[in-house]
Automatic annotation (TrEMBL):
Residues 1-36 are annotated as: Disordered. This is Pre-rRNA-processing protein Ipi1 N-terminal domain-containing protein. Residues 140-238 form the Pre-rRNA-processing protein Ipi1 N-terminal domain. The lineage of its organism: Eukaryota, Metazoa, Chordata, Tunicata, Ascidiacea. It comes from Ciona savignyi. InterPro entries: ARM-like, ARM-type_fold, Ipi1_N.
Length: 258
């Protein structure tokens, strides 16, 4: 009996709750993590500038910015894409002398629309490109000109005849504003090859180097009218081509047999 009582007293002693004195906090455990933090205000010098010195964002009459309009160019609806291009045209026409407009950024996004399946989108993109080309100098557009030509060549070799027809309008813009870039050696040969592709086709696999004039081009215009349009641009290309030294010989791998 005596041993049992001693064990019970020892057990109660081990699990007794320690009573703290009044006003004294319980000490933190050894494995506790401190979650306290300090905050301090940060002052940016730009915040102290007056609102008059900050340039206002360029917006359309629908309160859309350039970034908003560029994001709408990827919309699945042709109506949205066309409205975005018209909005860009509005900003460019109303703020031609504004240097804050990044014309090359807009151009690199709009040039993709020359291969759009919707005719109104292609028409609007050509109008926007005219506003960009008319204000951007040749030296500024020169680094991005290969990108512009690559999209133009995609339009000229597109499976849709309507896209091919509208691509000639972009060719006219390049001739009008950047004839030196178009008529450089590399660009001239590529453009010449695409002109040939527009009015002719390969005769067959056996005759790899033989070509014939394309006949059934489109129901909207005759084959002769289409050839006149292409050959007119080809004539402009040859007129702007610098004089070639007759002693230099050029080897063309693809021989064209009419």
């Amino acid at each position: 009996m005596g041993k049992t009582s001693r064990r019970t007293k020892a057990k109660k002693k081990d699990f007794n709750k320690v009573k703290l004195k009044v006003g004294k906090k319980k000490p933190a455990a050894e494995n506790s993590t401190s979650t306290a933090f300090k905050s301090q205000s940060v002052y940016i010098p730009e915040q102290l500038q007056s609102q008059e010195n900050i340039p206002a964002e360029l917006l359309t009459h629908r309160k859309q910015s350039v970034d908003d309009l560029l994001s709408h160019l990827n919309h699945f609806s042709p109506t949205f894409r066309c409205q975005a291009l018209n909005g860009l045209k509005e900003i460019l026409s109303n703020h031609q002398s504004n240097k804050s407009i990044d014309g090359m950024k807009i151009c690199e996004r709009v040039i993709r629309s020359v291969t759009d399946v919707d005719s109104q989108v292609r028409k609007a993109s050509t109008s926007v490109l005219w506003h960009i080309f008319s204000v951007v100098p040749e030296r500024q557009i020169s680094p991005s000109f290969p990108l512009i030509l690559s999209h133009l060549f995609c339009a000229m070799s597109h499976i849709s005849k309507d896209v091919q027809r509208d691509s000639l309008k972009v060719v006219d813009l390049c001739f009008e504003f950047f004839p030196n870039l178009v008529c450089s050696d590399e660009n001239r040969l590529n453009l010449l090859q695409h002109f040939i592709e527009l009015i002719s086709s390969k005769q067959g696999e056996r005759l790899a180097n033989s070509r014939v004039l394309a006949m059934n081009l489109s129901k909207k215009e005759s084959a002769i009218a289409w050839r006149i349009k292409v050959l007119t641009r080809l004539s402009a290309l040859l007129k702007n081509t610098p004089t070639v030294d007759p002693t230099n010989t050029v080897n063309f791998d693809n021989k064209v047999n009419w």
